Amino acid sequence: MKEKVKNILKILDEHYPNVRVALNYTNPLELLIATILSAQCTDERVNQITPYLFKKYPTAKDYATADLKTLEEDIKPTGFYKNKAKHIKECCQVLVEKYHGQVPANLEILTKLPGIGRKTANVVLGNAFDIPGIVVDTHVRRVAKRLGLTKHQDALKIEKDLMQLIPKEKWTKFSLQLTWHGRRICKARKPQCNKCPLHKWCDEYQKV
């Protein structure tokens, strides 16, 4: 397995050398909000509404004191807007009350905020604070399983499996590389195995 992981990492570095999160942001709060909005929504759609949103609500206090119905309307195009607006408002109220309106660079604290799971927390920590974390999104789950890096379906178990296999300093980059690979080549319905540079190391491909 060590040899396999080493080769997978080398190939990913060759094909996705300068990956970055697809959400646009300029500070940790913006990335936190954008990541909440990206649930069940494309990053492209989120990026369409955030320039207006970030201008209108530049601080955590602005979200915390926002009229809920207005906030719902502002984020409506991202879907599930009632839940998302509620989580954003409540989360920012806690940030204002306990953390001077700043996003804490701490996994345990972040995952206790309303509406923030490990995935969102790790996106923010890895990309806004350079604190390594494995982000298990739908693409990471699919690609990791196909490659044979995990047998699990549960996000936390997948995260733990990958944390044991991948060197810590590569966690954030590796997650982004798998996400980009899942979007471009290892797609859910029609994976382009003939184009895939990883097929030699892919359990799913070897079965076929």
TrEMBL record:
Its EC number is 4.2.99.18. Gene3D superfamilies: Helix-hairpin-Helix base-excision DNA repair enzymes (C-terminal), Hypothetical protein, domain 2. It is an enzyme of class 4 (lyase). SUPFAM superfamilies: DNA-glycosylase. [4Fe-4S] cluster binds at C186, C193, C196, C202. Residues 37-184 form the HhH-GPD domain. The keyword Ligase does not apply. Signal peptide: none annotated. This is Endonuclease III. It comes from Desulfofervidus auxilii. The gene is nth.
